[in-house]
Write a structure and sequence with these properties.
The chain is an alpha+beta fold. It folds into two domains: 34-77; 79-151, no CATH class. Helix content is 47%, strand content 12%. It is built from six helices and five strands; from the N terminus they run ββαααβααββα. The strands form two sheets. Strands 3-5-4 form a three-stranded antiparallel sheet. Strands 1-2 form a two-stranded antiparallel ribbon. The relative contact order is 0.11.
C-alpha cells in the first residue's frame, strides 16, 4: 500500500521504508524545477539544434557556457560509488548508509543500477584518501601503484 508523501510529489510505502533499490521517486525539489544535469542536457540539445540550423556562433557560445558550468560544478556533478566514497572519506559503509536516506531526499545520493552512489560534494575528503583511491583503481586494472616516500 502506498500514499502520497506530504513533502514531495511521489509515493512511498505506508510502512515508512525510505531506502532500497526498488524506489522510483526523485529528490525533493521545488515544484517545476529540474536538476542541474537536466538543465545541462537541455542546453546541449539546444546547442546541437543551433548548429544544425547554421547558428554556429550561438552554438559555440552556448557550448562554452556549458563547459564553464560543468567545470565550476564538477564536485556537485560527480557521483561516487559506495566503495570509492569509503576510500575518499575514510569512513565505513555503515556510516555512509546511515546518512543515505537523508542525502537521497536532498538529491545528494541515489540508487544507480541497484548500487548506492553519492555526490562528491556531500562527502568530506579526509586524510590521504585520494592516493588510496588512485592506488585502488590502479590495482584493479593491474598497474603497479606509485609509492611515495614520506618526508
Amino acid at each position: 500500500m502506498y500514499h502520497l508523501d506530504a513533502c514531495a510529489s511521489h509515493t512511498r510505502p505506508v510502512d515508512g521504508r525510505r531506502d532500497g533499490p526498488e524506489r522510483e521517486d526523485h529528490p525533493v525539489r521545488a515544484e517545476g524545477t529540474v536538476s542541474l544535469e537536466e538543465v545541462l542536457q537541455e542546453a546541449e540539445a539546444e546547442a546541437i539544434v543551433l548548429r544544425q540550423h547554421g547558428h554556429l556562433d550561438q552554438a559555440k557560445t552556448l557550448e562554452r557556457m556549458i563547459q564553464k558550468v560543468r567545470a565550476s560544478a564538477a564536485e556537485y556533478l560527480e557521483w561516487m560509488s559506495e566503495e570509492d566514497a569509503t576510500l575518499y572519506t575514510g569512513r565505513n559503509v555503515r556510516w555512509l548508509r546511515s546518512r543515505f536516506a537523508a542525502w537521497e531526499r536532498r538529491g545528494h545520493a541515489r540508487w544507480h543500477h541497484a548500487r548506492r552512489q553519492y555526490r562528491r560534494i556531500i562527502l568530506e575528503h579526509r586524510g590521504n584518501a585520494e592516493s588510496a583511491l588512485t592506488a585502488g583503481r590502479s590495482a584493479a586494472v593491474g598497474e603497479r601503484p606509485i609509492r611515495r616516500r614520506r618526508p
